[in-house]
Specification:
Blueprint lengths: L2 H4 L8 E2 L25 E2 L17 H13 L3 H7 L4 H6 L2 H11 L3 H6 L3 E3 L3 E4 L2 E4 L7 E4 L1 H10 L21 E2 L4 E2 L1 E4 L9 H7 L1 H6 L10 H10 L7 H4 L3 H17 L10 H15 L2 H15 L9 H14 L9 H12 L7 E2 L2 E2 L5 E3 H8 L3 H10 L16 E3 H12 L1 E2 L4 H5 L3 H9 L21 E2 H12 L3 E4 L5 E2 L1 H5 L5 H10 L6 E3 L8 E4 H12 L3 E3 H8 L3 H8 L24 E3 H10 E3 H8 L3 H8 L9 H4 L3 E3 H13 L14 H4 L21
Parallel strand pairs: 16-18
Antiparallel strand pairs: 1-2, 3-4, 4-5, 6-9, 7-8, 10-11, 12-13, 14-15, 17-19, 18-19, 20-21, 22-23
Amino acid sequence: MPLERLGQPIYGRFRPARAGQRHGFRRGQQEAAKPDETEEVQEVTAEILLPTLPFHEDEVTQGYFARIGHFHAGVDVGRFCRYTALPLTAFRDGTDEFVANVAALSGGDLDRLRRNTLRRLPDDQFLFREETLSVAVLRRTTVHFCPQCLAEDQARNPELGQGACRLRWSWLLRPVVSCPVHDTELVECPEPDAVKAFDLTLLRARNEALLRAKPPVGKHQAGCLHRYVVARLEGQRNVAAWLDGQPLAQAVKACEMLGALLANGPTAEIGDYTDIDWANAGDVGFGICSRRAEAITHSLLAIRQTSGRRSGRTGPQAVFGLLYRWLEYTARPEEAGPIRNLLREVILSSFAIGPGEIVLGQKVERRIVHSVNSLKAATGLNPKRLYRLMLKAGMIPANTNDEALNQWVFPAEAGEDLIARILNSVPQNHLKGLLGCSKTQAEQLAAAKLVTSVVPVEEGDVGLSVGAYNRDEITSFLALVCSHAESGAEESEGFLDLTRVSKGRSSTVEVIRWQIEGQLKHTRLIGAGHRIDRLRFSLAEVRVLARARAGTDLHRLTVVADRLGLTLLAVKQLTASESGEPLLPLVPKEDCVGRQGAAYVSTAAIEKFLTSYASLSQVAKLMGVHPKTASIVLEGRLSPVSHPSAAGIRLYHRQDIETFLSRIDAAGGAGIGRPQKGQTHEEKGLNCSESAEIGSFGEIDASIR
């Protein structure tokens, strides 16, 4: 609205143009925009227009200039450019000339106005609020706005007339599809003219019928990508480090494309996406991208792992779909940013791609992973045999028989090394010849993992073709065993081979361990070459070590039975775990390697058993009665931990017995033959000698030895 209509003074008078001159046009530009010949063209001098129109931080400077034109001259932005002698291109491109013009007319701060100016750069780039933007993140042919915000602008400043409505700079951004103030979708209007797109008043007037025909705006809350983009343009860079290090357009595109893949799969029809669809996809992608590159790699690997593997034709494009096609066929690969390299690394680590192939525009220098098919091509081995070997080695998951042989991959170097070691290996039945020992001794050394198969062997598996024992590793093992032996020795008394020196006093594994650890100082090596059958061990040394080991913390079941006063059968039943945890646990088998027998109980387990449980005979002694009497008294009052029918022994929790006896003492011991306070067994008429001390944990009375 012109100020004359408001009855207020104005600086910068409107004056008629001189003959032959149209003010508002520079020399050479007069034909750019021809007004009607009957229209009197006016020019506004470059002085501050009063009263000044306030500038807001949330509006774009081009929109502010359009507001000044409506407020002070009552004209649209195109005519106001002519009135102020400002070229339309300078307005559209946000040049320094435009910023200086706005500052002169409004009296505003030059830096503030420049910061909120959308400035065009070469190569379709734009600079806005110190961020470089591209057409991928800007709206250039449509205008979006919130009708409620504009209505509030008008209601808050009615005196400004058509100059009240502000064009928020956030509405220029594609990821912004809703108003964060009112939680509603933005209204869209088409406007291909890049100059008129900044004039909200003109736009709404020209599209009045279209806007009236639109349905009511729907509810929609601002998403996380929306908030991130706005925060970036407000100068905040402390939310997502991986995204913060990229131009905003790259960051937005990465979030949107990754989100579309995660949300709708590799065949998502992104050509049909609406602004809301892109916003939702961007939010999904932002949830991953905001957690750094590792999270992106993890999500891409997860997509690969869940993709189908039955078809041998399933390649990167089938798995990663739209994301792969965007990065592979984009006209400007450099604009894709670091997500291109992340996807490339995932592809190279997920597909058997060899050197020389081109992946996402770059030549592959070295292979990262093999499949069974690619390893077959490299080694010439049968693919089914390779598959079984990789399966046993754990390089391919179990239950993959229905998968294509080129789909499961494993590290290339590890796979090639494994095959090379297998090809230089022998099965277990040939192991004795390499080691220089008997078949039984070879199996014992293999079971103790002193010699290991290249391909894992299931426990207890024996046979002609079990395992693959590498020759080089066997040679290294023998060199280690013989390293402490005196070479060039001859047969002599007191020095025996492995079979005779371990018989009855040790085991093959234990003696070899002692030799490797250097505990056998006088072992001799007869003849040339490193072989076990050429070693002669000092019988005296082995006896000393065997005696020392016998006094350790582990006890054979016969020793345990003696300490507990039980039969060997009862001890074996207590160590059984068929119905849960055993009452007397055995030491793990791996801790018994090298010892005679495989069943041992630790001292700690014995002591815990004695403090936790009491036999019927022990309870009877505490009560001062015969075991049969104790059994009758306890029947129905305390349940035994084990019953004779199960373990051949009746046991009770010691704590339960102590509690039970405490109650009896409180009652004076009456009723069960328990001596009352101050009364002896003899006074009670009991003969303690009737308790035969035979076995403290048997059903008959006994004492603990």
